[in-house]
Inverse folding.
């Protein structure tokens, strides 16, 4: 990259990646990141193994996306395809949540919770266990291939592959009964789709998390660009207090140390950075605000007897304020401001709406689709008949009878194709579609009228639950 | 980093003080780009791609969507071969009682109906329009019988189809051709209308006499018709050729002659029975 040695630099078309060897760091934010990693990975790997008893006809996996039967199970909640708005609502909440966190805390998602960050962290951790800390890894990288380097590389890739395989494996367990699938997978009996999915996810996990690492965030991810649009001068970012740190330099007695700033130019912040940047250069697109440089710098500041926070979370507005000689201000007043409160309110409103919808949704639902080709049929006695395709959803774990009626004083007759009882038996946890005939009396006003509003009732034969659907009866229109 | 930034070339563009860096692309990105080019070339060799004057290159793999569709159709036909053979050899009256065969018959009958029958009877099987001469198959009125066996016979041989000696046959005379005088026609139309409560011009009592003398052989004395001869019931609310005075008079004068082709040459036994079962369950079956 350096063109200073070359008076006429030739334009390089392609840049090789500069490898990053993050050093180990201890501190409050690192500890928080370990906890979040343990929690997120734990939830991801273990959730498919939680059991939940739903009775004999339904699966007993607590969280299951059952594509074949078009059901989503989440503990006591069962979602049918027509209730997809719950998923849409959760996605809206996720979106608003990201807006909220971004406007309040900047790229906190990138720094702590993004799978790319969590898995990269995990891969760097295993790399450190196997190959040693930063200096050892740099040495190993620079040295020629020998038996030791070869052995370490092989061990590292085996461990990485195992992690990646477990990641892809955990994914497929969400889609079918996990214990059964595990046995099938080991016995090489599972469906090819399971193996293909695992293969793809194993590859992407190892490629994104272990090999590409920060390049995904820098080059591939759209989110940093979107977040940039959501940040303002109150947004909290990681920044270097250069007015306190500069001029930087080694503090040696008698060499003008008193004129230097707090930064001793130890490069700790650079060495721990998983993105390979120097935070002292200011705001950069690459920075995912993982705060590891804060931990590294705080550790150094403690050793040299200076106050912590040379590198720190700070709002852009306060940076200007402090540079001008102002006092440090609390971060809370940036976090609690109208914009973040509005996002919180919206987020909570969607959440409350979904929760209410979840508790009031009925066990029995019907859909009525009037036959429109043709809209009516005249029978030989002059009666007019309409046909409706009615779907009855039985959400119970047992098969149940459902009875149809049009209400007590209805002038119409109702009949079901293939049944003399106006009744249909719907098997457990399914929707059954039946053709329902509604017939006016011969010569009646309803038969001649253009349209008559009708209400079709369905009654659960076991617990008496009722549901209705309003629809229209089409007469001859004369 | 700050040093590096100075070294980076700019494109020379500047807007409001913002310069555009001419940063190099990452290498792996470029390699992926090359890989897609190679993939693209390989793809056009392996699959049909390059247009020629007649058609296009076939591709080394010999893939075509048409053969894929044919293979899919074959796969489904093999899958249904057993139930189809059972349907073909079955007495039409037994279809309703056999769930597997019945389901297959309804589904395949629907498709066959849409292909071969909807041109006259309409895609909704309602005869498209009241009074146009194509029977509505949804109602409960059947000229030649409405159970599956009768419907099967109708579909197999057709109606008034002189190419098939087994076709159902009858012919209403054109009473306008010297059989009846104009006033007799007016009166008999008035009488026929009165059978189902329609009021037309003419002498109903005189019409009744005309009716008894000329029409009862087929339409019966009470006007309820005769399925053996495909003679419509004149007392119900269903009028194949329309219920207006004009329409009934035209029928009397000219004698309707609705023809349906026989399908045994074009459809196999299973298809005929499937269509019969489908038509039967449309809502008017007996």
């Amino acid at each position: 990259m350096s063109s200073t040695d070359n008076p006429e630099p030739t334009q390089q078309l392609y840049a090789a990646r500069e490898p990053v060897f993050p050093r180990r760091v201890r501190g409050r934010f690192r500890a928080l990141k370990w906890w979040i990693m343990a929690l997120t990975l734990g939830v991801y790997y273990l959730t498919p193994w939680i059991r939940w008893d739903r009775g004999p006809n339904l699966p007993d996996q607590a969280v299951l996306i059952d594509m074949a039967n078009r059901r989503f199970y989440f503990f006591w909640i069962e979602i049918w395809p027509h209730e997809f708005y719950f998923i849409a609502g959760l996605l809206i909440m996720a979106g608003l949540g990201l807006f909220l966190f971004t406007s309040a805390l900047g790229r906190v998602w990138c720094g702590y919770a993004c799978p790319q960050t969590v898995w990269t962290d995990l891969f760097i951790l295993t790399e450190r266990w196997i190959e040693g800390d930063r200096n050892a890894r740099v040495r190993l990288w620079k040295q020629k291939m020998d038996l030791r380097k070869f052995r370490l590389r092989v061990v590292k890739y085996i461990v990485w592959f195992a992690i990646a395989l477990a990641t892809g494996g955990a994914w497929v367990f969400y889609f079918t009964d996990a214990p059964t699938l595990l046995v099938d997978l080991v016995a090489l009996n599972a469906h090819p789709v399971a193996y293909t999915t695992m293969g793809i996810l194993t590859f992407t996990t190892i490629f994104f998390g272990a090999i590409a690492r920060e390049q995904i965030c820098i080059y591939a991810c759209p989110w940093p660009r979107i977040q940039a649009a959501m940040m303002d001068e109150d947004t909290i970012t990681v920044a270097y207090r250069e007015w306190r740190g500069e001029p930087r330099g080694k503090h040696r007695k008698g060499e003008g140390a008193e004129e230097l700033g707090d930064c001793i130019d130890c490069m700790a912040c650079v060495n721990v950075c998983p993105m390979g940047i120097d935070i002292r250069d200011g705001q950069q697109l690459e920075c995912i605000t993982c705060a590891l440089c804060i931990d590294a710098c705080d550790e150094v500041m403690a050793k040299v007897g200076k106050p912590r926070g040379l590198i720190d979370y700070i709002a852009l507005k306060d940076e200007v304020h402090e540079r001008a000689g102002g006092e440090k201000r609390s971060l809370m007043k940036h976090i609690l401001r109208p914009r973040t409160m509005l996002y919180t309110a919206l987020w909570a409103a969607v959440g409350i709406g979904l929760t209410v919808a979840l508790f009031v949704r009925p066990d029995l639902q019907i859909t009525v689709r009037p036959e429109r080709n043709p809209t009516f049929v005249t029978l030989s006695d002059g009666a007019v008949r309409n046909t409706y395709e009615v779907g009855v959803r039985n959400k119970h774990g047992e098969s149940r009878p459902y009875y149809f009626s049009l209400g007590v004083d209805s002038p119409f007759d109702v009949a079901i194709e293939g049944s003399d009882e106006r009744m249909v038996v719907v098997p457990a946890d399914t929707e059954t579609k039946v053709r329902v005939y509604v017939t006016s009396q011969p010569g009646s006003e309803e038969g001649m009228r253009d349209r008559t509003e009708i209400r079709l009732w369905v009654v659960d034969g076991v617990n008496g639950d009722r549901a209705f659907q309003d629809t229209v009866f089409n007469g001859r229109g004369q | 980093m700050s040093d590096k930034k100075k070294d980076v070339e700019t494109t020379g563009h500047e807007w409001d003080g913002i310069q555009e860096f001419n940063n190099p692309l990452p290498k792996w990105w470029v390699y992926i780009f090359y890989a897609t080019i190679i993939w693209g070339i390989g793809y056009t060799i392996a699959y049909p791609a390059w247009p020629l004057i007649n058609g296009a290159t076939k591709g080394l793999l010999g893939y075509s969507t048409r053969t894929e569709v044919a293979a899919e159709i074959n796969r489904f036909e093999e899958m249904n071969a057993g139930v189809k053979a059972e349907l073909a050899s079955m007495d039409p009256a037994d279809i309703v009682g056999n769930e597997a065969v019945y389901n297959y018959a309804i589904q395949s009958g629907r498709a066959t109906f849409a292909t071969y029958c909807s041109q006259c009877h309409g895609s909704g099987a309602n005869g498209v329009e009241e009074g146009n001469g194509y029977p509505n198959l949804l109602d409960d009125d059947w000229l030649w019988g409405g159970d599956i066996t009768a419907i099967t016979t109708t579909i197999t041989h057709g109606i008034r189809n002189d190419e098939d000696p087994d076709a159902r046959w009858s012919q209403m005379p054109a009473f306008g051709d010297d059989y009846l005088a104009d006033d007799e026609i007016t009166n008999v139309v008035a009488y026929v209308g009165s059978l189902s409560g329609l009021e037309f011009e003419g002498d109903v009592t005189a019409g009744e006499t005309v009716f008894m003398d000329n029409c009862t052989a087929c339409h019966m004395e009470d006007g309820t018709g005769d399925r053996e001869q495909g003679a419509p019931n004149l007392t119900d609310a269903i009028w194949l050729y329309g219920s207006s005075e004009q329409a009934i008079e035209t029928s009397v004068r000219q004698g309707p002659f609705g023809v349906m082709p026989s399908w045994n040459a074009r459809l196999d036994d299973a298809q005929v029975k499937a269509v019969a079962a489908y038509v039967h369950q449309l809502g008017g079956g007996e």
Chain A has 17 helices and 15 strands.
